[in-house]
Amino acid sequence: CGSEAKKKKQEQTSPTLLVWPRTVFSQV
Question: Where in the chain are the domains?
Answer without folding.
Answer: 1-28
